[in-house]
Write a structure and sequence with these properties.
elongated; about 20% strand; 7 strands; alpha/beta; FAD/NAD(P)-binding domain
């Protein structure tokens, strides 16, 4: 059972007493971090990302970024579906991007901004739009191996594996947000066991 608070008012009131695990630093996970960052008091948040950078599905290798002719592949998601109401393509680029299917590079610029610049100079949705540096909450190259909820304590035990060192550890959280959009192998959930 995962409890999902329904209102910003609830989150703002109870933020200090919550420890939240966010699984994945792609579009869903980063949007979750942005909304937590905009609260008057941000809860204690740890975001685990198995890649060595944020961005999730927009960070595939060059093999998935070009077709058999060497042309850049565009996402199958129209900009109208992946544009955020609080940070538009028009606001980011200063003009219409000219296509309904932005390339991976356009999406990364829109989301991250120019990552070669310092945090305060970046202009992406995940950087300046949050009002704080969200990378401080992300633990990279770390995959979540299991999440177990204990009803008696109403806590989640999250087991993670640091892919760089091989170290495995467990941590306790009051809430878990599953925001991973890509599974590299089939995973079936057993709800009827």
């Amino acid at each position: 059972m995962i409890y999902v608070p329904q209102t910003k008012k609830f989150l703002a009131k109870h933020a200090a007493s919550k420890r939240v695990c966010v699984i994945g630093a792609g579009p869903a996970g980063m949007s979750t971090l942005i909304h937590f960052a905009k609260l008057p008091e941000m809860p204690d948040v740890v975001c685990y990302e198995k890649q060595d950078t944020w961005g999730g599905l927009w960070n595939f290798t060059w093999i998935t970024g070009v077709d058999q002719y060497g042309e850049l592949c565009h996402s199958g998601i129209p900009k109208e579906c992946c544009e955020f109401i609080d940070y538009t393509f028009q606001k980011h680029f200063g003009h219409d991007i000219g296509t309904s299917f932005p390339s991976r590079e356009i999406m990364l610029d829109y989301l991250k901004g120019n990552v070669k610049l310092s945090f305060n100079q970046r202009n992406g949705r995940w950087t300046n739009n949050a009002g704080r540096d969200l990378e401080q909450y992300i633990t990279y190259s770390t995959v979540v191996r299991s999440v177990i909820h204990t009803e008696k304590t109403e806590m989640f035990t999250v087991t993670v594996n640091d892919l760089r060192t091989g170290a495995i550890r467990t941590e306790q959280f009051t809430h878990v947000v599953i925001a991973c959009g890509i599974l590299t192998s089939q995973m079936l959930l057993n709800f009827w066991a």
